[in-house]
Design goal:
- With about 100 residues, this protein is α+β, with helices and mostly antiparallel strands.
- It is about 25% helix and about 35% strand.
- It is built from one helix and four strands, in the order βββαβ.
């Protein structure tokens, strides 16, 4: 899907999964998970975003998937900033898609 546009670093996983609501209705989510160390304890941070219902049938699914991943990446940046303010934070280096120029 996004393999030609996104390369994941060690300790990171990006996947698309079919989930079900309590009503039984199926929908697709993109999950972005990242291994981090907080005060020398290892954790996995996971963020998810719902994908459009026609994601598999959409000819522009790579663009939709990349936009979804960039949104998750921006949110992960925010989570990392908050965690780093409260803990000794360590995680693998990764590309940031929303960095302001110096």
């Amino acid at each position: 899907m996004l393999s030609d546009k996104v390369s994941m670093n060690r300790g990171e996983t990006l996947c698309v999964q079919v989930n079900a609501k309590k009503t039984g209705e199926l929908f697709r989510n993109m999950f972005y998970m990242r291994q981090v160390d907080l005060d020398d304890e290892r954790y996995i941070i996971g963020l998810q975003a719902r994908l459009p219902d026609d994601f598999e049938d959409n000819l522009g699914c790579r663009d939709v998937g990349m936009a979804c991943f960039k949104g998750l990446s921006r949110n992960m940046d925010k989570v990392e900033l908050v965690l780093a303010q409260h803990f000794f934070y360590s995680g693998s280096m990764r590309r940031r898609y929303n960095c302001a120029p110096f």
